[in-house]
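If your schedule permits, I should be very grateful for your opinion on a structural question. Please examine both parts with care and let me know of anything in them that strikes you as inconsistent. The record follows directly beneath this note:
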Amino acid sequence: MWIGWIEFDILLGDVHSLKQKRSVIRPIIADLSRRTEAAVAEVGAQDLHRRSTIGVSVVATHATHVRDVLDQAERMLAEQHPEITLLSARRGLHSSGDD
């Protein structure tokens, strides 16, 4: 079993409140979740109105599939969501046999 994750540091555009932030972040999370069939959540910077950290995680039988899904999520976020700026992406990949 392979477990992979990617964490995106995001800068939001013209957002001036946490309510506006939610209106931008929620559709992005729903889109990533629907298109990648991965677990997606806001995992950091929740108290800042212009920044967010979104995490995506995948569990699969093959490492190749995990990498493909994480790559797809990164491409989608960078190319299909002009309302945000992707500042960085960190990722990890582990097998159940790692000790």
Notes: The chain has a mean pLDDT of 90. The helical segments are 18-36, 63-80. The CA atoms of residues 8 and 89 lie 5 Å apart.
